[in-house]
Amino acid sequence: MLRVLYLVHDLSDPAVRRRVLMLQAGGAEVVLAGFRRGENRLADIEGIAPVELGATKDAQFAQRLLAVVGASVSLGRRLGGMARPDVILARNLEMLALAGRAAVQFGGAVPVAYECLDVHRLLLREDAVGRALRAAESHFGRRAKLLVTSSPAFVEHYFKPLSGIRGPTHLLENQVLELDRSDAGPPARTRSEGQPWRIGWFGAIRCRKSLALLSEFTRRMDGRFEVVLRGRPARSEFEDFDGLVAREPFIRFEGPYRNPEDLAAIYAEVDFAWAIDFFEEGQNSHWLLPNRLYEGCRHGALPIVLSGTETARLAGERGVAITLDDARLDTLMTRFSAFDDSAYRALHAQLVALGPRPWIVDRADCAAFVQRLAALRQPGVQPVARPVPSLVTNPSHIDKVDCHDR
Known about the structure:
six-stranded parallel β-sheet
């Protein structure tokens, strides 16, 4: 059984829980270590007692840097007595910085995989700060034998031209974890006469611009549209998140949820999935393929996307997108002012016809990912590479192994 030491920047991140479940389903034994940021107990994983390396705070980079320095000093003591892992999977840059020290702790020959599912805006700066962070990534990433990322656009726009990370890339999209795979597509949707359309914005709620846009939109539409928020608000990005939501007559926040256990139920309550993010506008937000795109499509909620983004290209290619040409209020109102049941049914039929496969990762995919990690232990033995369906113009530079293309 492959033993994986998973180093994470935020133990309370639901995506960490999902990745651990995926590794376990693929046949790996997982030891989880990282920083605690917040108290989202719904992100806890049954049967896992994580090694806590300290506490960090959201949107406080300097504090996180100091926490990493402190953890590097105490890492040997915290990992002492632990069985030697076969592979170290390091999530985000700060954990990549600790991965080398952890490998030394176990004799120095443990291969490292670098998991980077977002490109932080600081890495993209053209000043001394950005150059220093990219240099640090290149330095700490010299040990990395595999880059795991979630969107081809990250490779095209960051890792290829700017990052010093080299070596093979594994595309692992933010698909829904569905271990007991079902071939059943999204259920049929019915709406009562006069019922408002509902937009679900689930997951990491961190975009002030989206909240302002949706607030004004629902007010102007006078109750024809409602917005349901669920997940983890990045309260550091809002002056008063709870107050902002409380003042909106057609927006409500329903708290956290378990992923993937609660997805079917929460998406059944909405008609659309808000798959737009202006948090790092023009950069990360244009390149990412968010969880909510796959979750919504898997469970029958049509994605609302922004033209020119990677999300819009993927959803548009599959014929299920409601695309906004720009982020102006008038554009959003025009797009939905004449939207009716017949337009919804036509798009939803296309979504149903695709079936679940484009949106999920199943038990076989989990096993394929674990096998990809296991191959890092044997430098001379590599699995056969198969092309990954890519949205980039020229993806030939990516040494891909895809666990979703079946």
